[in-house]
Amino acid sequence: MTPDDALLPTFSRIGESTTARYTEIPEGSMLPETAYRIVSDEMMLDGNARLNLATFVGTWMDEHADRLYSEAFDKNMIDKDEYPATAAIEEYCWRILADLWHAPDHRDAIGTSTIGSSEACMLGGLALKRRWQHARRAAGQSTEKPNLIMSSAVQVCWEKFCNYFDVEMRLIPTSDEHPLMDGTGLEDVVDENTIGVVALMGVTYTGAYEPVTAIAAKLDAIQAKTGLDIPMHVDGASGAMVAPFLQPELEWDFRVERVQSINTSGHKYGLVYPGVGWVVWRNVAALPDDLVFRVSYLGGEMPTFALNFSRPGAQVLLQYYRFLRLGRNGYREIQQTTQDVARYLSGAIGRMDAYELLTDGSDIPVFAWRLKPGHTDKWTLYHLSERLRIRGWLVPAYPLSGDQSDQTVMRIVSRNGLSHDLAEDLLRDIRIETAFLDSLASPMPHPGIKTTFHH
């Protein structure tokens, strides 16, 4: 590369004037502006993140967060002895969450940051498995064939956990009569090898909360009858950062004695860029000590427990920034506004002749709907999803789980940044495309775009 190359018009330079599909590292160098332009232009083919109503992941933060991010993206979270201040801030964050989730004594709680809620779920599951193993060994019993009980509507990370860590996955199938796991049928699947029960605070399919207190009450009844004391983990990937602000009277957290651990996603309704998650245990005793590694920092000692080793520290700092910047009132205002948008959208869609709601966004700001039975035989929700994609909106259509897997629904995730104005634009496009599909004189000639994401 010669200095004169910088004088060439941008799209005439080496790199821009040839293919940009590099599958082997090029022999020579190129100007930083050229390399930037190639990557930036390729990225233009992505969808607009703000219009992606399929994702729960945050797509917007303010300029102060952006500045903080740029100052901290070189920090490695695992280097606690090199970055002791960041390590201390990580602890501040999970202690804040322990207090938010009503830990009996937040000074006795323990937690950690993770890459996201999926890793946090696996850590919660590992703690359940290890506690069960310790109890079985102490009683001189076999530690083979552990099982974990959950709804068929769980996120795929729980399937991964059971696969990776040799735990039998026992599912309670959702049905029209029981669209959520509510304790029904638990007595048929619980046994001495059950390491725990997972409850969902925000089902990804529909946005609804599973009734944690009802599940716990059923486990109380099972214990009274069989002597089996089954702990619970709450997967609060979304709801654990919504319920404390919008439904503070709802008991789902450490106020429920059986709940031993809770996870959440900082990059969902924690309002941080991806990726950061959190898991907190109700007390130190709930996390087996042999799962914890200890590192020195600030002349003292800090426990660490995670599946990943090197990982970003910047998002942890952004989480603390959010806690300080917003406080309880700020989180409450943002989550309420986000829910108001969801309720506005669900109300309008529910009034359309073609659709009926499954949920309306009154739990987490997420709702789902389906075609009314018998409305049409000419198009499906996959066709509506495809038509909206043409207009820039990513609104997924997908089948439900369990005994409802023959039903197709659509779902909208309302997030911070989905303004009322944008919601009105979306409704306009849904009405236009629904009218177009309803005007068809014959069935669509293709099945439409099938969902490409997995719960």
TrEMBL record:
Its EC number is 4.1.1.15. It comes from the Bacteria. GO terms for biological process: L-glutamate catabolic process. It catalyses: L-glutamate + H(+) = 4-aminobutanoate + CO2. Coiled coil: none annotated. One of its GO terms (cellular component) is cytosol. GO terms for molecular function: aromatic-L-amino-acid decarboxylase activity; glutamate decarboxylase activity; pyridoxal phosphate binding. It holds the Pfam family Pyridoxal_deC. Gene3D superfamilies: 3.90.1150.160, 4.10.280.50, Type I PLP-dependent aspartate aminotransferase-like (Major domain). Transmembrane segments: none annotated. It comes from Agromyces aureus. Its cofactor is pyridoxal 5'-phosphate. Keywords: Decarboxylase, Lyase, Pyridoxal phosphate. The modification N6-(pyridoxal phosphate)lysine is found at K268. Belongs to the group II decarboxylase family. It is an enzyme of class 4 (lyase). This is Glutamate decarboxylase.
